[in-house]
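OP here, attaching both records as promised.
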Amino acid sequence: MDEQAAETAVRTYLTEIRTRIDKAAGIARAADACAGFCDEAAEISLDIEQPLYEAITLLNAVSLINRVCRDR
């Protein structure tokens, strides 16, 4: 992967990571708003898992691109 392609991919992935984290934060705020209702808050908070999983996967991709570019 050339340096230009790597930079473009990393920038795109970082934007996507931010999007996923913002979504997870919004879900956390919604769960917090239901804090008086433990069952509802717990159910809502479970929706955080998918965007966080996606953010971590994208972060792993950024890390891999970085290692590949460094090892050349």
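Record two, same layout:
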Amino acid sequence: MIWYVYMVKGSDESLYTGITTDLERRVKEHNHGAGSKSLLGKLPVELVHSETFTDRSSASKRESEIKKLSREDKLKLLK
């Protein structure tokens, strides 16, 4: 199974990082309010970054690495 680490940008320019096996479905869930509670009030979100992994463990480790980055470093990653 393929796993994705993804980053979405909220309408207030906030960044959220997560993992999923279906990027399209997950972004739709976020935009319908069924995703992270931290994004409520920041909709719609836009997918701005994704990385592919072959297992959940690797995706989770990368998600953790990205979440520890400063906002400045996350913005550099997007370029």
